[in-house]
Amino acid sequence: MKEFKLLGCKVTEKTTGFSGVVTSIALDLVGCIQAYITPPSKSKNQEGHWYDTARLIVGRRVMSAPKMATDPTGPSVKSPML
Fold first, then answer.
1. 6-44 pLDDT tens trace
2. Which pTM was predicted?
3. What is the separation of C-alpha 7 from the centre of its chain, rounded to a whole number of angstroms?
4. pLDDT in tens, 50-67
5. Which candidate, 28, 70, 77, places its Cα nearest to that of 53?
6. Which of 27-34's residues contact partners 24+ apart within 8 Å by CB, and which partners?
7. What residues pair up with 56 in beta bridges, in sequence order?
8. DSSP letters along 1-39, please?
9. What's the CATH architecture for 2-57?
């Protein structure tokens, strides 16, 4: 899924101008794909926001995207054991 490539990229939301780094991707039951944008730490507004990925202007990658688990049915090898 191409939206996962947004993880770690700097983005700007087209309508509001809100910008930051994509730190999470959400897939909704109704088909919306949203990205959580975390603003820079020096920003006055410290809270991030969810936006539709179609409304994002994608900039350069500023963080490495995580390596996902190879087994989609089980936990990641980095998951804590309970």
1. 999 999 999 999 999 999 999 988 889 999 999 987 767
2. 0.74
3. 5
4. 999 999 999 999 988 666
5. 28
6. 33/1, 33/3
7. 13
8. -GGGGGTTEEEEETTT--EEEEEEEEE-TTS-EEEEEEP
9. Roll (2.30)
